[in-house]
Each structure stands twice: as structure tokens, then as C-alpha cells.
């Protein structure tokens, strides 16, 4: 019996630019996939503004990790618990006002 490893790699790229009244915008995206996951590089630029780049890494079978860009401090977080706590506090406040709790 022999050990064999199957490997693959894939690359796609797209870009576009547009202009209206002499004002242009551009966008590009490149995607690279291999057995370890997928990496997506995006760059966009509005006329007169600096380019904004973002890299998203999607590990095979995992969740996304986003980095780069002009606002790399951005993050996605689950606000379900915060929403639930807010709703509970509001219900308590209304109940107090109505003479309940």
C-alpha cells in the first residue's frame, strides 16, 4: 500500500473600475484556495481617497479571520447576548413604571 497525497490549488481574480463625470472608482479581488483554506484579497479605491485593502483568511473547515485595511480595528462580534440583556433591562424598567416588579 502506498501513501498518496492529493493536493490542489486554485486562483481567481476580478477587477473593475468605473467613472462618472470624471470621478473614478476601482475594485479588485483575488482568491487563492489550497488544502489549508482560502485567502481573499480585496482592494478598493474611490477617487481622491487612499486605497483600502482587506485580507480574509478562511481556514479549511474553520471561521474567517479578517485583517488589514484602513480600518483594521473593525471586528465582527455576536451581539445576541447584549441584545437580550438590553431587552430584559427595558422590560424591567417598563414593569417598574407600570407598578409591577
Descriptive terms for the model:
five-stranded antiparallel beta sheet; 18% helix; 5 strands; 101 residues; 1 helix
Give the topology:
Blueprint: E1 10-20, E2 23-34, E3 37-46, E4 52-59, E5 65-67, H1 80-97
Antiparallel strand pairs: 1-2, 2-3, 3-4, 4-5
The string of secondary-structure elements, in order, is EEEEEH
Helix content, binned percent: 10-25%
By secondary-structure content and strand pairing, the structural class works out as alpha+beta
Evaluate the radius of gyration. Answer: 23 Å
- Rounded mean pLDDT is 76
Let me know the number of strands.
5
Reading side by side through the largest sheet, how are the strands ordered? 1-2-3-4-5
Separation of the first and last Cα atoms? 73 Å
Helix count, per DSSP? Answer: 1
Shape: flat
Biggest sheet record: 5 strands, antiparallel
Which blocks of ≥5 consecutive residues have pLDDT under 50?
none
SS strand fraction = 35-45%
Describe this structure in words.
The chain is an alpha+beta fold. Helix content is 18%, strand content 44%. It is built from one helix and five strands, in the order βββββα. The protein has one helix at residues 80-97; strands at residues 10-20, 23-34, 37-46, 52-59, 65-67. The mean pLDDT is 76.
Amino acid at each position: 500500500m502506498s501513501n498518496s497525497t492529493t493536493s490542489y490549488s486554485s486562483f481567481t481574480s476580478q477587477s473593475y473600475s468605473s467613472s462618472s463625470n470624471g470621478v473614478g472608482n476601482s475594485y479588485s479581488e483575488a482568491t487563492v484556495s489550497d488544502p489549508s483554506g482560502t485567502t481573499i484579497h480585496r482592494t478598493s479605491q474611490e477617487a481622491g481617497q487612499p486605497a483600502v485593502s482587506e485580507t480574509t483568511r478562511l481556514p479549511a473547515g474553520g471561521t474567517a479571520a479578517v485583517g488589514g485595511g484602513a480600518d483594521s480595528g473593525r471586528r465582527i462580534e455576536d451581539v445576541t447576548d447584549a441584545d437580550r440583556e438590553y431587552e430584559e433591562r427595558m422590560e424591567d424598567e417598563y414593569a417598574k413604571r407600570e407598578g409591577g416588579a
